[in-house]
TrEMBL record:
Residue stretches spanning the membrane: 33-55, 128-146
Protein's UniProt keywords contain Transmembrane helix: yes
Gene Ontology CC terms: plasma membrane
Keywords (A to Z) from UniProt: Membrane, Transmembrane, Transmembrane helix
Record's protein name: Transporter family-2 protein
Amino acid sequence: MQLILILATVLAGASLAVEAGLLGPLGQQVGKLWATFSIFGIGACVSFLLMLFFAPRQRPSLFAQPAWQLGGGLLGPVYVVVLTLATPVIGVAVTMIGVLMGQIAQSLLNDHYALFGSKQQPFNRQRLIALGFIVAALGLMAWGELS
């Protein structure tokens, strides 16, 4: 089961690179914020249909939850706007490695401090070395772009 989930996360990551590749040209054609809105509008419709047919509402109400748990909805548009702005300028690969570096760095903090209800996984040498490789990858890719 864990292997299937790992493969699913790789495919989800690949889909983000496809999304970034689509957003850059779309943003140039219709405008950056319109491109962002279209992505979320279509995503909201698909999510609604999936909820309607595959996930009956559970109690308690979504809006009875703490506001900080719903705050993630504010982060998605920031991410998509950054993709839309960055991809045409620095390319999909540099954009994605930058996103990956941010994700891994924040994930290490989430795990180490058990933030947002995550399972505590303290920093260790392997995790920090992995982050170092991602930082190096971003540096090498950005250096190639800037030169």
